[in-house]
Specification:
Helix 6 links the parallel strand 6 (about 175-180) and strand 7. Helix content is about 35%, strand content about 15%. Strands 1-3-4-2-5-6-7 form a 7-stranded mixed β-sheet, with helices on both faces. Helix 1 packs across helix 7. The chain has helices at about 15-30, 65-75, 100-105, 125-140, 160-170, 190-200, 225-235, and strands at about 35-40, 55-60, 90-95, 110-115, 145-155, 175-180, 215.
């Protein structure tokens, strides 16, 4: 009888992470296959939906390209209103998919949430301060929030107010993922250094999701990856 332990063949099946990614991809298809629709605009915490449905939120500096990216994400030209004027979005806007939860493979229809931009805006200071307080209160205390997608203009990188938002999310233990927008505006030689710098800048933030998503609402780059990330966040318990 041999004294050597039996040789166990290596496991060649998918890892749990790979299985999760496959499930997310299967959900992302139907999730974005049908038109999304506007549900409501919220100007106070008392107006937030109370039906306990899972939601993901998009936030970033004013004029970061948030509305354009949301439109590219859902494959619609005008779901979220776009403008060259910083501060156009002044409410917390809720959208939902035009498909029932069973079709989507989810327990309930999710919400996609478009938050007002922070930083400079072409609006009265009192209004900017009011919606900034609203954004912060929402991000810190929304139990239904599965993930925040924090948009960063690839041409400018992370600014001080981005780090302030990340610090707040860290303290509130809210998971968030960096999304580089307008990557098509960079020269090809600038793309890799920009991505590496974003990864390095987020390293000290404990709640930041490991992956940085690189996108362009104009060319469609990264949109499928972002759709899968949204699906994965909605599936995450």
């Amino acid at each position: 009888m041999s004294d050597h332990p039996p040789v166990v063949p290596p496991f060649d099946g998918p890892t749990p992470e790979e299985e999760q990614a496959t499930i997310a991809q299967s959900v992302a298809g139907p999730l974005f296959a049908r038109p999304w629709q506007f549900v409501k605009g919220v100007v106070a915490l008392s107006g937030l939906p109370t039906d306990r449905r899972a939601e993901v939120a998009f936030v970033g500096r004013s004029n970061v390209g948030k509305s354009s990216l949301i439109n590219a994400l859902v494959g619609q030209k005008s779901l979220a209103r776009t403008s060259n004027t910083p501060g156009r979005t002044q409410e917390i806007n809720y959208f939902e998919p035009g498909a029932d939860a069973k079709t989507l493979g989810l327990t309930s229809q999710p919400y996609l949430v478009d938050l007002p931009g922070y930083g400079y805006a072409a609006a009265p200071k009192s209004k900017v301060e009011a919606w900034t307080r609203l954004i912060n209160s929402y991000l810190r205390g929304r139990a239904e929030l599965r993930r925040v997608f924090l948009l960063i203009d690839a041409r400018h990188g992370l600014k001080a107010n981005d780090h302030e938002t990340m610090d707040m999310l860290d303290k509130a233990a809210v998971s968030y993922q960096l999304i580089l927008t307008k990557i098509d505006k960079l020269k090809r030689t600038e793309i890799d250094p920009t991505i590496k710098k974003a990864i390095a800048d987020k390293a000290r933030h404990v709640a930041a999701y490991p992956d940085v998503c690189v996108t362009s609402s104009q060319t469609g780059e990264g949109i499928e990856t972002l759709r899968t990330a949204v699906a994965a966040a909605l599936l995450d318990r």
